[in-house]
Amino acid sequence: MIIQVNTHLREIHFDGQTHPCRIGRDGAIAEQHGQEGDFKTPLGTYILRYGFYRADRLPKPPCALPFWPIRNNDGWCDDPSDVAYNQTVRLPYPASAESLIRDDPAYDIIIVLGHNDSPPQAGKGSAIFLHVTRIDDKQTAGCVAVSPEVMAQLLPKLSPGDAIKIN
Asked: Topology of 2-166 in CATH?
């Protein structure tokens, strides 16, 4: 399956359905022009790699993609000069890294997209996920976000090898 994201309309399309979604607060950008911290969603087609979920809030998602529970010390390195850039790390970490544990529900379910990961290029963007919207329903820092209800509809349909096309 290929999930389609229309960044102009801020819509996600899958399984013959269309739903609203959130993208980067500063819009979208061609992948080759994206930069770390630009608050833009990178355009392109990305394989859905694997997922994380908050086991203290939710059961394991009903999904064929590999999913792991988020641990209290799980983080994601966003320091372009670090060897672990755009990868999971254990916190505390000596370089800049965001915690995957958040007070809001945005990271209750995270699907890691194959953006800038094979291998990561310094400064070309990190932590581009498909995740749940925040309670305040604001745009993201560059990810694609959907409501918990839409995520619940999407998860059982996903399989290894599926992709998301962001245009």
From this structure: L,D-transpeptidase catalytic domain-like (2.40.440)
